[in-house]
Amino acid sequence: MKLKKDSIAIIIVVVLVFAYVFYECYSVMHISFETETALLSTVYDKIDATALVVRDEKVISAQGSKVTVPCLSDGDKINVGGNIAMTFSSKEAAENYSKFLDLQKELAYYENLESQTVGQAANVQSINSEIDEDVNSVVRAVSSNNTEEIENASSNLNDGILRRQMIVGENIDLFSIIQNLRKESVKYAKVKPDGYITTKESGVFSGYTDSLENIVDYGSVENISAADAEKAIKKAEKAKNSASNEFGKLIKSYAWYFVCVVDSDKVLGLENGQRVEVAVKNNDSRVLNVQIVSGAQPQTGQKKTALVLKSSNMDSFIASLRKEEIEIRIGSREGIKAPASALHMNEKGKKGVYVLISSQVKFREAEVIYSDDESVLLSYDPDSSNGIRLYDQIITQGKELEDGKVYT
Questions:
Q1: How much is the pTM?
Q2: By C-alpha distance, which of 277, 392, 385, 395 is closest to 329?
Q3: How far apart are the C-alpha atoms of 336 and 369, rounded to whole Å?
Q4: How far apart are CA 306 and CA 43, in angstroms?
Q5: What is the dihedral of CA 241, 244, 247, 252, to 10 degrees?
């Protein structure tokens, strides 16, 4: 028996109505949420500035046509009369002597490794613990982006793995390695430097030079004017791609300065002598504690001020800084950071966020202590019974949110 066209149309309409009702019911009972874990975050009150780094530094010149090879690594300390560099008559002689030093270093490494394994056959557990700690050291060094620490931690990890391999009986022929290194060293043993470059002053060595070592007089930097500071910064900007042919430099004092020019209204509330933190923008891991020595208390009517910041820490990273984009952190606020879309107001007129606990929605009260176009920083009080708790799952996207409502 054939269905009439009217009956077919009615059936189709009924099916569509049931489908719509089912969809609406499913949408109500199965609501999709997007959440974000509540974690503590810090927002800084800051002054962004272009800064010039001023150090007490003296350029070290190479000796005529001779090939110069440093005796020091960047950041190494040297005393009066110490050898800064070696000189050679040719590039080949310099390269051969460098090979000899590398071979001697490698030989000492394996000889030391051999001595450490003697009598340790039953100490595998101790070696395993050392390896675990070395792995953690590598991870920490990588996260801080410290090249020197990465190299040292990786070397220690390699030592531990090799020692463990030998203790558990794996075939690593240290004797043959050491003998081959000794034979190789003999080939270059007769090569010696023609002479040395010594220093009459103590300080920190750096192979980085940029022809801007005397761009600002170090002795009067604390009294620099805003106009002179601006001129020096512009000069450094024009010379940013220039390079010096000098061999290196000696930094004669650990004390050095950031010099920057900022609007006077930005330093309101600051005082000379106050300590602040400075983040170097091209290296997120480096935050330096510095002291404001001048510029924080400009004269009335002065539109711009030369803010001079002083530090007494010195290493290879600092020795390579010149014109830098910095963030001067003058205050901080700590709270829970969340997208602005997660902020709501409940029926009592209280601001806060909804969180998802298992399948139940809860409203957590919170004050906005900082906001921008995309996010808010919310107050966090661990003793508050109604406030946000660490690791709450903040609902950043969802509909029909209601305190206490259960969703499946």
A1: 0.69
A2: 277
A3: 10
A4: 25
A5: -90
